[in-house]
Amino acid sequence: MLNENMIEALNKQINEEFFSAYLYLSMSAYFDSIGLKGFANWMMVQYKEEVDHGMKFYNYLLSQGANIKLLPIAETPYKWNSPLNVYEETLKHEQHITKCINDLVDIAEESKDRATFNFLQWYVDEQIEEEENDREIIDKLKLVGDNKSGLFMLDKDLATRTYTPLNTNEEV
Ligand code: FEO
Questions:
Q1: Domain residues of the chain, as ranges?
Q2: Which DSSP string corresponds to 3-66?
Q3: Could you tell me the pLDDT band of residue 172, with boundaries at 50, 70 and 90?
Q4: What is the pTM for the complete model shown?
Q5: Pocket residues for ligand 1 (CB within 6 Å)?
Q6: Do residues 70 and 15 lie in contact, with contact meaning Cβ atoms separated by under 8 Å?
Q7: What would the pLDDT profile of 97-136 be if each residue is shown by its tens digit?
Q8: Ligand 1: which atom is nearest the Cα of residue 93?
């Protein structure tokens, strides 16, 4: 059984994850509009993964008999200056999500909620990977600089990313 504070915080996190999905969908559209289909694919996969992250919280709340409260999703930006600018914003956003997850872990710890504490460990690990992926692409984009053929090669590389659905019913 979850306490009210925890339920409210987890519902808010569903919203954070769906906002992330919305943000990456917008970034995918931006890349498509500038002809970088591989980057657009990478962001589309990211969008789908964020929906899974949101659904994992959703299913956890339901499994605990808690109410689901779906909050409004804020408008996202839709224009960026460059691919590098997009990934710098992506990393900044993921650092914000890492903080949200850490705050949830704190709430679980303070209320001695072992079930939620264990459940959140998946997200703690996932955030390490999320930030690492963004840093890797930022480094590559910095190496490429203004070199168009380097950018097209990176685009080809990002076109190979595929989506693997997450089992959002698994609690750990
Ligand atoms: Fe759901 Fe990208 O963190």
A1: 4-158
A2: -HHHHHHHHHHHHHHHHHHHHHHHHHHHHHHTT-HHHHHHHHHHHHHHHHHHHHHHHHHHHTTP
A3: low
A4: 0.97
A5: 17, 20, 50, 53, 94, 97, 130
A6: yes
A7: 999 999 999 999 999 999 999 999 999 999 999 999 999 9
A8: 2
pLDDT in tens, 72-98: 999 999 999 999 999 999 999 999 999
Q: Which atom of ligand 1 is nearest to the CA of 130?
A: 2
How many angstroms is it from 10 CA to the middle of ligand 1? 14
Task: Locate the ligand 1 atom nearest the alpha carbon of residue 97 and give its number.
Answer: 3
Q: Output the CATH code of domain 4-158.
A: 1.20.1260.10
What's the gap in Å between 145 CA and the centre of ligand 1?
27
Rounded to the nearest angstrom, the distance between the alpha carbon of 152 and the centre of ligand 1 is 26
With contact defined as beta carbons under 8 Å apart, do 52 and 169 qualify? no
